[in-house]
Design brief:
Shape: globular
Structural class: alpha/beta
Distance between the termini: 8 Å
Order of helices and strands: EEEHEEHHEEHEEHHEHEHHHH
Helix content: 40-55%
Mean pLDDT: 93
Strand content: 15-25%
Low-confidence stretches: 1-7
Radius of gyration: 20 Å
Number of strands: 11
Largest sheet: 7 strands, mixed
Number of helices: 11
Strand order of the largest sheet: 1-2-3-4-6-8-11
Length: 273
């Protein structure tokens, strides 16, 4: 792929703001005060992610948030309002869980790397969002929890993403107690990659992005897809799958170019092929 062209487009309206600059699609949750994952917010975030899938101008996606809360999970006021429905809210609850599950899976299955830039509280489905991203960088002011058990509603869907990031004992500790953990503990658990001072958060995320953007887009797509696929397999099946992926990757033009550039001690020129 040729050198990234500087493009910038900002949409400071709706529940999700977006900007595209130098290959980085920045999505900012803007549903104050809690940046809750309402139906409209999930739809807006899903639309942005779907649009980025085949957009060659997008190399990396960053999900951030406005205000002091990263994301407080589902909109409980929206959920409660549907308890007066004839079915006591069942249809709306099913729609909410279905939309949320599809959103989280689309992040995992997305062909582009997705990074969570966390500054503030990430709770319930908000924590699920963080855990679903490929990387998560958090400020030292960030906190995390799955507090559903405190209100009689076990965080069963956040549990899916959480349990695929941290050990079972640590996941169950969070799920059973509902207690909040700080960013340092979240890093020790394996939920996030790094903890940085708030004032340096955006800068550190930008450094990660710059490093990733310098790689072959095809290689990143192949690698991300293979990572999540093999993680759901048994050992022998995982090696068989990874071996097939490696062979196909070796046949790609970008791999041929990358190896030649390494041998020739020059910078590779990626074509995305």
């Amino acid at each position: 792929m040729a050198e990234i062209v500087a493009i910038k487009h900002i949409t400071p309206e709706g529940p999700v703001w977006s900007s595209l600059d130098n290959g980085v699609l920045r999505l900012v949750l803007a549903n104050p005060p809690a940046n809750a994952l309402s139906i409209d917010t999930m739809a807006a975030l899903q639309a942005q992610l779907d649009g980025a899938r085949e957009d060659s101008d997008v190399r990396v996606v960053v999900i951030a948030a406005s205000g002091n809360v990263f994301c407080a999970g589902h909109d409980l006021k929206e959920v409660t309002a549907h308890r007066s429905d004839a079915d006591r809210g069942r249809a709306f609850f099913e729609l909410t869980m279905s939309r949320c599950s599809a959103l989280m899976q689309s992040i995992v299955r997305h062909p582009k790397p997705v990074i969570a830039e966390v500054d503030g509280l990430a709770t319930a489905a908000g924590l699920q969002l963080v855990a679903s991203c490929d990387l998560a960088i958090a400020s030292d002011q960030s906190t995390f929890c799955t507090p559903g058990v405190n209100i009689g509603l076990f965080c069963s869907t956040p549990m899916v993403a959480l349990s695929r990031n941290v050990s079972r004992k640590q996941a169950m500790e969070m799920l059973l107690t509902g207690e909040t953990i700080d960013a340092t503990t979240a890093r020790e658990f394996g939920l996030i990659n790094r903890v940085v001072p708030r004032e340096y958060l955006t800068h550190i995320v930008a450094k990660y992005v710059q490093t990733i953007v310098s790689k072959s887009p095809l290689t990143l797509k192949i690698g991300k897809e293979a990572f999540y696929a093999q993680a759901e397999m048994g050992l022998a099946e995982a090696y068989d799958h990874a071996s097939r992926v490696m062979v196909e990757n070796m046949l790609a033009r970008d791999a041929e170019e990358g190896i030649s550039a390494f041998i020739d001690k020059r910078k590779a020129e990626w074509k995305g092929e």
